[in-house]
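lol ok so funny story. i was supposed to be doing the assay writeup but got distracted and ended up predicting the structure for this chain instead. priorities right. anyway since i did it might as well share w the group, maybe its usefull for someone
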Amino acid sequence: MTSPLELRRSASPTAIVLTMASTVFLLALVQTLPVPALPQIGTQLGVSATTVGWVTTATMLAASALTPLLGRLGDVYGHKPVVLATLVVTLAGSALAASAHSIDLLIVGRALQGASFGLFPLAISVLRHELPAERLTGALAVTASTLGVGSGVALVATGLLTQGGADYRRIFWLCVVLTAVVLVLAFVTLPRRAGQGGRVDYVGAAVLGLGLVCLLLPISQGHEWGWGSAKVIGLFIASAVVLAGFLLLQSKLREPLVATSLLAHRPVAVTNLASFCVGFAMFSVFLGATYFVATPRGLAGFGFDASVLRTSVAFMLPGAVVSVLMGPIAGRLVGRIGARYVLLLASVIGLCALTALALLHTTSAEVVVALVVANAAIAIAYSAMPALLVANVAPHETGIANSINSIMRTVGGAIGSALVVTILTSDTLRHGLANGAVVILPAEGAYRIAFLTGAAFFAVAALLAGFGLRTSGRPLTPHEVEEDIALASAGEFATVSTSL
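and the output, tada:
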């Protein structure tokens, strides 16, 4: 008779890792692809910069509401059907965005694409439940590192597909093709397992989603609405009230969406804060560097007059390539020295890279080297975080723990983007052209502050890893794997018994 452990290992671990890494790569691609093309989208659709900003805001808001719910649904009902349903929604959103000829439909499509953010916690849960212990640490690292890889590749792809003022819809057709490929991979590769049972707190998910929307909406739109406006302040207050109510609601439930003890557990809390910091630093790198290299040197005295294509290929592509290589290397490092020290190492490397970028950016070589090192640091840091969470949460909490971690990364990225834009617009230079027009560009000092701010967040992540985590993350032992199977089997038995 085949044992549960043998049955679980019947699927090819390599195929499962490839599929889960592909889903995470896809979500990073979906998140980043439109960012460099926003001005082009606004021009082609004839809408203002404020309106076109909703192309990214809608995705982020939908992601914040759906990610924790999808993570919990996967734990309760089984991961394969939830992964497939999430990919179907992402495919529908990609197709709508690719065929839309109005900003309204494009925003709706982007909101549907926000479901893809739930693929990260689902992927981590699948790996934990399907892989043998000796493969888990490396698989977690490779899968998580594709977050940085996908973002880097997205910047390059956008530059290639939209060069010469080409139709922006090409980037969304790329999403359609890749989502369809990943959907087929997931359908063929993932085994169908029963979930661990229990109930889904839909009310709690709705309250959490509302609180996160109230938080992220003013962060993303604050520079347009005014940081001191009644709308922004009111939403921040509403967010605080709703999220406090969510915590109170969760503390009173027997089967909460997020156990308050999980949020307060020191390793989990520290890992979430580190994810916030790295998310902030990542967007300060991508956003700040993209604007910096495009600055016309003849007017500002710095920058490289880079087109979107040159920005993508010459400045961003090397970092994306290095990120691809970092996943397996980071996995081995996590297995050898532990996730805590890998996170510490990555944060220190990121701190050095952004400090160098702030101080040394006269030549393109200096900028490219700094971006390559920063991309490597981001990929390594993201590789360590799932291992830290898996080592410190119960099997049935894997999905929701990684969902909250994803949300923290999203919030960090949103705040990073907003703060970088605010910094760059607070210190500007005005240049008059021969035709009488006036060009307003961020000053070089503003870029220095933006990059040093990202470096400061890497420094905080290093302090969290060095002093906030007392023990290092570790791979699960075979005994713990068997315990996970026993828990899963018990959950399946309980579900069948209840249905009978």
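The chain has 21 helices and two strands. The beta strands are 428-432, 438-442.
back to the writeup now i swear
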